[in-house]
Amino acid sequence: MPWAVLEGERLVMLDYASGSRPIIDAVMQEHGVEANVVPELGHSATVFGLVEADVGVSVLPWLALLLPADSSLAALPLEPRAERTVELVRRRDRSLSPVAESVWSLIAALPRRAEDLG
After folding, report:
1. What is the mean pLDDT of the chain?
2. Nearest-CA neighbor of 3 among 81, 92, 87, 116?
3. CA 117 remoteness from chain centre
Protein backbone atom coordinates (compact mmCIF):
# COMPACT_ATOMS: atom_id res chain seq x y z
CA MET A 1 0.00 0.00 0.00
CA PRO A 2 1.25 3.53 -0.68
CA TRP A 3 2.46 5.82 2.10
CA ALA A 4 -0.40 8.19 1.21
CA VAL A 5 -2.88 5.89 3.02
CA LEU A 6 -1.41 7.21 6.27
CA GLU A 7 -2.59 10.77 5.52
CA GLY A 8 -4.65 12.02 8.46
CA GLU A 9 -4.39 8.73 10.37
CA ARG A 10 -3.72 8.55 14.08
CA LEU A 11 -0.27 6.93 14.36
CA VAL A 12 0.98 5.00 17.36
CA MET A 13 4.73 5.23 16.85
CA LEU A 14 7.99 4.11 18.39
CA ASP A 15 9.84 7.03 19.95
CA TYR A 16 13.10 8.53 18.72
CA ALA A 17 15.17 6.02 20.71
CA SER A 18 14.26 3.73 17.81
CA GLY A 19 16.73 4.12 14.96
CA SER A 20 13.95 3.59 12.46
CA ARG A 21 11.79 6.51 13.61
CA PRO A 22 13.80 9.26 11.83
CA ILE A 23 13.70 7.17 8.65
CA ILE A 24 9.93 6.71 8.89
CA ASP A 25 9.44 10.44 9.52
CA ALA A 26 11.65 11.33 6.54
CA VAL A 27 9.77 8.98 4.19
CA MET A 28 6.40 10.34 5.34
CA GLN A 29 7.65 13.89 4.73
CA GLU A 30 9.03 12.87 1.31
CA HIS A 31 5.57 11.57 0.35
CA GLY A 32 3.75 14.58 1.82
CA VAL A 33 2.04 12.53 4.50
CA GLU A 34 0.78 14.46 7.52
CA ALA A 35 -0.39 12.17 10.26
CA ASN A 36 -1.37 12.74 13.86
CA VAL A 37 1.15 10.94 16.08
CA VAL A 38 -0.80 10.08 19.20
CA PRO A 39 1.51 8.34 21.66
CA GLU A 40 5.21 7.68 21.11
CA LEU A 41 6.33 4.52 22.84
CA GLY A 42 9.56 2.72 23.60
CA HIS A 43 8.61 -0.85 22.72
CA SER A 44 6.79 -2.48 19.82
CA ALA A 45 4.78 -4.75 22.16
CA THR A 46 3.21 -1.63 23.67
CA VAL A 47 2.54 -0.28 20.17
CA PHE A 48 0.75 -3.55 19.30
CA GLY A 49 -1.48 -3.24 22.36
CA LEU A 50 -2.57 0.30 21.51
CA VAL A 51 -3.17 -0.54 17.86
CA GLU A 52 -5.22 -3.55 18.95
CA ALA A 53 -7.20 -1.22 21.26
CA ASP A 54 -7.97 0.89 18.16
CA VAL A 55 -6.01 3.95 19.32
CA GLY A 56 -4.48 4.19 15.83
CA VAL A 57 -2.32 2.44 13.27
CA SER A 58 1.45 2.14 13.26
CA VAL A 59 4.48 2.02 10.99
CA LEU A 60 7.16 -0.34 12.26
CA PRO A 61 10.34 -1.92 10.90
CA TRP A 62 9.75 -5.47 9.69
CA LEU A 63 12.02 -6.91 12.41
CA ALA A 64 9.60 -5.48 14.99
CA LEU A 65 6.64 -7.22 13.35
CA LEU A 66 6.80 -10.47 15.26
CA LEU A 67 3.11 -10.28 16.13
CA PRO A 68 1.87 -12.27 19.10
CA ALA A 69 0.29 -15.59 18.09
CA ASP A 70 -3.16 -14.63 19.37
CA SER A 71 -3.07 -11.14 17.82
CA SER A 72 -5.91 -9.75 15.74
CA LEU A 73 -3.45 -7.42 13.97
CA ALA A 74 -2.37 -7.59 10.35
CA ALA A 75 0.80 -6.15 8.81
CA LEU A 76 0.93 -4.76 5.28
CA PRO A 77 4.05 -3.45 3.50
CA LEU A 78 4.26 0.22 2.54
CA GLU A 79 5.59 1.08 -0.92
CA PRO A 80 8.11 2.22 -1.81
CA ARG A 81 9.95 0.33 0.88
CA ALA A 82 12.25 2.36 3.14
CA GLU A 83 15.42 0.54 4.11
CA ARG A 84 18.43 0.98 6.34
CA THR A 85 21.54 -1.07 6.91
CA VAL A 86 22.26 -2.60 10.29
CA GLU A 87 25.71 -4.01 10.96
CA LEU A 88 26.89 -6.42 13.64
CA VAL A 89 30.38 -5.60 14.92
CA ARG A 90 32.60 -7.55 17.27
CA ARG A 91 36.27 -7.83 18.06
CA ARG A 92 38.00 -10.59 16.13
CA ASP A 93 40.39 -11.48 18.93
CA ARG A 94 37.76 -11.84 21.67
CA SER A 95 35.14 -14.48 22.23
CA LEU A 96 31.61 -13.49 23.12
CA SER A 97 29.84 -14.44 26.31
CA PRO A 98 27.34 -17.29 25.85
CA VAL A 99 24.41 -14.85 25.90
CA ALA A 100 26.07 -12.48 23.40
CA GLU A 101 26.94 -15.45 21.17
CA SER A 102 23.28 -16.53 21.20
CA VAL A 103 22.16 -13.03 20.17
CA TRP A 104 24.88 -12.87 17.49
CA SER A 105 23.78 -16.24 16.06
CA LEU A 106 20.09 -15.30 16.17
CA ILE A 107 20.64 -12.03 14.31
CA ALA A 108 23.04 -13.60 11.81
CA ALA A 109 20.38 -16.21 10.95
CA LEU A 110 17.69 -13.61 10.15
CA PRO A 111 16.79 -12.97 6.51
CA ARG A 112 18.80 -10.12 5.01
CA ARG A 113 15.68 -8.36 3.67
CA ALA A 114 11.95 -8.39 4.36
CA GLU A 115 11.36 -9.99 0.96
CA ASP A 116 13.39 -13.01 2.10
CA LEU A 117 10.78 -13.82 4.77
CA GLY A 118 8.68 -15.52 2.12
Report:
1. 87
2. 81
3. 15
